Amino acid sequence: MVPDARPLFTDDSATLVRTSRKLTSADPLPFANNAFRVIAKVPRGKIIGAIRKLAAQVPKADLEPAGRQGFRVMAQLDGQLTAIDRAARSDLERALSAKVRGRVSSRGGGDEYWLIGRKDLGELLLAYRLPKQRSRKVAAGALAPELSSMLVAASRPDRRDRFLDPFAGSGALVAARLAQPARRIDYVDERLDELRPNLPDVLRRKRDSLRMFAGDARRLTMIDDHDVDVIVTDPPWGEHEDVDGPYETFVADVAAEFDRVLSPRHGRLVLLSSRRRADFWSAALGPLAEETLEILINGHPATVIIGSR
Ligand SMILES: C[S@@+](CC[C@H](N)C(=O)[O-])C[C@H]1O[C@@H](n2cnc3c(N)ncnc32)[C@H](O)[C@@H]1O
């Protein structure tokens, strides 16, 4: 992660932060769909003039040489991909080409420089898109790696954690937690045997800290009382996947089991629920449901419930 990141601007889908660390890849930001390093900024004003001013700043910017596949320039203004005035684009491409000693390749595949404007940000940014590891195809019903990393980050991970996902499914949250040190990481899912062949490689590699159980989250017989520091989980939403009996009873049984296994002194919880069912969870979790965040997952309203003891 980025320890000294300080937020400068946030809107509904972007955050601008300052950090002393020069990022060269998106790896320290696994929760971001897209991550950029700002290399120049100017007051937004009229776009063509602003692009020319950005081009004038390129010679003194700190940029890596372009790779063999060259680079291209893209623009996103107020959330929309935007065509750029041809002459202003040429000025910018020429300045970048001289600086990174690379050719323009409009087909992509190489480095990307983005002009970024946000409605409530008074500046136009020129930013380098940080390369990201190509992620595996996400299995049907599995959480995206970015969202999984964000939910794990919301649990304030600590290297002494005994972590549990009792509805682990494709293992997306466990894989995200494995990216950081922990004392113990427990995967539980009642369908483990069926899911095992498609689990990500990080879960199939044997390591002492990772335990995998086929089991019922309502009766976690493999876990002693108060032996878990943090639960991050995405239980069945009760929409496409059925639970036995009424959803409210299921929620009450799960919440009682969380109460049993979580450390009474520093137990923490991050739970993702469909927005429609979030009130059941908040009621059953009681004081453990301290905060709720409303998010959209592929357009589907969801609620993240966060709390600690
Ligand atoms: C919403 S999915 C979790 C998806 C997971 N976060 C992922 O990214 O793949 C819910 C999971 O809970 C499991 N499940 C349902 N009822 C369960 C129970 N009583 N105990 C344990 N696992 C259960 C299902 O098999 C399913 O994999």
TrEMBL record:
Keyword Methyltransferase: yes
One Gene Ontology MF term: tRNA (guanine) methyltransferase activity
Organism superkingdom: Bacteria
Keyword Transferase carried by entry: yes
Any Pfam family: UPF0020
Coiled coil segments of this chain: none
Entry keyword set: Methyltransferase, Transferase
Record CDD domains: AdoMet_MTases (cd02440)
A GO BP annotation: tRNA methylation
Residues of the Ribosomal RNA large subunit methyltransferase K/L-like methyltransferase domain: 208-277
PANTHER family: THUMP DOMAIN-CONTAINING, TRNA (GUANINE(6)-N2)-METHYLTRANSFERASE THUMP3
Protein name: Putative RNA methylase
Native source species: Microlunatus parietis
